[in-house]
Specification:
The structure holds two protein chains of two kinds.
Chain A: H1 5-16, E1 20-22, H2 39-51, H3 66-75, H4 90-101
Helix pairs in contact in A: 2-4, 3-4
Chain B: H1 14-28, E1 33-34, H2 37-44, E2 59-61, H3 66-79, E3 83-86, E4 105-108, E5 115-119, E6 124-127, H4 133-142, E7 147-148, H5 160-165, E8 181-187, E9 193-195, E10 229-236, E11 238-239, E12 243-251, H6 257-269, E13 278-281, H7 282-287, H8 304-314, E14 319-327, H9 329-346, E15 350-353, H10 354-357, H11 361-370, H12 382-385, E16 388-393, E17 396-398, H13 401-417, E18 424-428, E19 432-442, H14 446-465, H15 478-484, H16 487-500
Parallel strand pairs in B: 2-4, 3-4
Antiparallel strand pairs in B: 1-2, 5-6, 6-10, 7-11, 8-9, 8-10, 12-14, 12-15, 13-14, 13-18, 16-19, 17-19, 18-19
Helix pairs in contact in B: 1-3, 6-9, 6-13, 13-14
Classes of the chains: A mainly alpha, B alpha+beta.
């Protein structure tokens, strides 16, 4: 029977003092469904990679319906990959969609 | 026949599947088992040249621990339900998160996203499948640990475990990702948990520092295969060098590829160029920030003359070689002088540093990739043709100029026959090159989808006939590629599969391996 990951990591950390960092429970770099801090965290770590550099279209300040955002994220669109409920769950995706729907255009309202 | 499921696993009745789903839900909870079309849409989206219906899953199950993976595997064995494990599911031009055949259940390991440990002194990490490069990068940054990642181009949303298990590559001196992995934990089809290498030894603390262990080295059989579900993987991370100097060498002619390879190979083999250099064709360079339709109105292959004009207009090379120097400033200075002299002596190529290039977004993203920084700028390539179709054609070549020229000519001829563009790069290993062609097509146009499928098929046929094998392929062509490596290899793969997975429940068809 294999030892539990948590106890193994703890033992390793104690044995190696400061050199080894046991990090599995650390929330700061957690980036999966159920672990996002808020919609802005999702946007910063996922959406912005393409939508803030001109690879994907600007999606802030477009007055788009929240449901449209929801559908595009789940289904993908042309080259945009679909994002799964394990990436971002329905509840957080609804919050993200609402936030984007009400957002100002990049650089502030025009 | 109508069913409450959007697809069923092959050979499994709806009644049996009902029972299996009920048991998955008992183990994982209702919220972590999906059978509805709305949620399964995110597991079905593909870019490869095949119809979506051939890759529609019947369900997605999302365990959060090794114990839950084991419990799911037991249920799969009981009901003979095949599962297609994915890590972050971002193998976009190779099949994304969708299974290789209709009806398989996707086992989505994204929730298993623990960074188990990072050893800052030894430069190792142990991670679960759902950890993304971004997550690991952020962790290192937050804790000011001076270690670098090596990542593929879609780094931010992809992950180290899945990429290494599929034998993907990156752009730093640690760019051969599987080579720099060390130790796996694998849930076997029987439910046993295997730790490879030194990990099998109770109380061992060397699992992430010594690869080989004792007896046969098993890690390789769990890559590009379906012999088990990798639930943890160790990696060596590169110590951040005191200085990093990225540079590009631009060449004006397509046929310069011969001289490029002959000039740079000795430097690469001697480790004067330590990283996985890329030799990027103009259409990849330009395609990452231009839209084809704005520069060429035709529907067929973009003519060479138009490409030449674009090269001149945008001041890029017909080939653009991206390399880095990693070391102390003094070491880099010595190697920089060697490189300058070699390029000068070759009589070809314009050598440019970051300072000389200035504010060039393409140079910036290449420099980021060569130091394992996160971005997805390369997705700009998908805007070149538009329409969301992409398939990586990835034959291996010797690092020999005459060979690369021959492969380029073959690829251009076949792509041209179907009206597609030669959007390519060579990623330089120590003695090999991964010749990577992005077959970009408009997936919203059924005629282009069919042409792309036929083109990809012909590329595989013609290249394998010439003795060129592909190192990796999308989920629609795995059987065909398995055949190119001959019947003996295929049969041995099958014998191992039957021995380890008698019910054939793990990813049947992966890499052409069936029971």
């Amino acid at each position: 029977m294999k030892p539990k990951a948590s106890s193994r990591a703890t033992i390793t950390m104690m044995a190696a003092a400061v050199a080894v960092l046991s990090v599995w429970s650390h929330p700061a770099s957690a980036q999966v469904a159920g672990q996002w801090k808020d919609p802005n965290h999702v946007y910063a770590k996922i959406c912005s990679n393409c939508h803030d550099i001109g690879v994907g279209p600007v999606i802030k300040g477009r007055n788009l319906d929240p449901d449209y955002y929801f559908q595009v994220v789940r289904h993908g669109m042309r080259a945009m990959p679909a994002f799964r409920p394990t990436d971002v769950d329905d509840a957080m995706l609804h919050r993200l969609a609402e936030t984007l729907s009400k957002s100002a255009p990049p650089g502030g309202p025009k | 026949m109508s069913s409450k499921y959007i697809a069923l696993p092959k050979g499994v009745s709806e009644k049996s599947f009902d029972a299996a789903i009920k048991e998955y839900r008992a183990v994982l909870g209702e919220a972590n088992v999906f059978t509805d079309s709305e949620h399964l849409a995110s597991y079905s989206k593909i870019m490869i040249p095949d119809i979506t219906e051939n890759h529609t899953p019947s369900a997605a199950i999302c365990p959060a621990s090794v114990e839950e993976v084991q419990a799911c595997v037991a249920i799969c064995n009981k009901y003979k339900v095949p599962v297609w494990p994915i890590s972050t599911g971002r193998n976009l031009g190779y099949g994304s998160a969708a299974p290789c055949s209709r009806g398989q259940v996707v086992m989505d390991l994204r929730r298993m996203n623990k960074i188990i440990e990072v050893d800052a002194e030894l430069g190792t990490a142990l991670v679960e499948p759902g950890v993304t490069f971004q997550q690991l990068y952020d962790y290192l940054q937050e804790h000011k640990i001076p270690l670098w990642l090596s990542c593929p181009a879609p780094s931010a949303i992809a992950g180290p475990l899945g990429n290494a298990v599929d034998r993907g590559v990156g752009y730093t001196p640690y760019g051969e990702h599987f080579m720099f992995s060390c130790g796996m934990e694998v849930v076997m089809p029987t439910g046993e948990v295997l730790k490879t290498g030194m990990g099998s030894l109770p109380n061992s603390n060397t699992a992430q520092v010594f690869k080989w262990g004792y007896g046969p080295y098993l890690d390789g059989i769990f890559t590009q295969s379906n012999y088990g579900i990798v639930t943890k993987m160790g990696f060596w991370l590169m110590p951040a060098p005191p200085a990093f100097k990225p540079y590009v060498i631009r060449y004006p002619e397509e046929t310069d590829i011969v001289d490029i390879v002959e000039t740079l190979r000795p430097l690469r083999m001697a480790m004067i160029i330590p990283n996985a250099v890329v030799i990027v064709h103009a259409l990849w360079e330009l395609g990452s920030f231009l839209k084809r339709s704005e520069h060429y109105p035709g529907t067929g292959t973009i003519p060479d003359s138009v490409v030449k004009d674009l090269v001149k207009k945008h001041k890029v090379g017909m080939w653009n070689v991206y390399c880095g120097l990693y070391g102390s400033p003094e070491q880099n200075e010595v190697n920089w002088n060697i490189i300058q002299n070699v390029v000068k002596a070759s009589g070809k190529g314009e050598l440019l540093t970051a300072e000389q290039v200035g504010d060039d977004p393409v140079f910036k993203y290449r420099a980021d990739l060569m130091q394992g920084k996160m971005n997805t700028a390369e997705f700009g390539l998908y805007n070149w043709r538009g329409g969301g179709g992409s398939a990586w054609f990835a034959p291996v070549s010797q690092a020999r100029g005459s060979e690369t020229l021959k492969q380029m000519d073959m690829a251009k001829r076949i792509l041209g026959k179907y009206g597609f563009d030669y959007v390519s790069e060579f990623i330089v290993g120590w003695r090999d090159m991964h010749h990577i062609v992005d077959l970009l097509y408009d997936r919203t146009d059924p005629a282009q989808l069919e042409a792309a499928r036929a083109c990809f098929d012909e590329l595989l046929t013609e290249f394998s006939k010439a003795g060129y094998g592909t190192y990796r392929v999308n989920t629609a062509f795995m059987d065909k590629v398995a055949d190119t490596y001959g019947p003996v290899k295929r049969e041995i793969n099958r014998k191992i599969k039957r021995a380890l997975d008698p019910n054939g429940i793990i990813a049947p068809g992966k890499s052409g391996i069936w029971n």
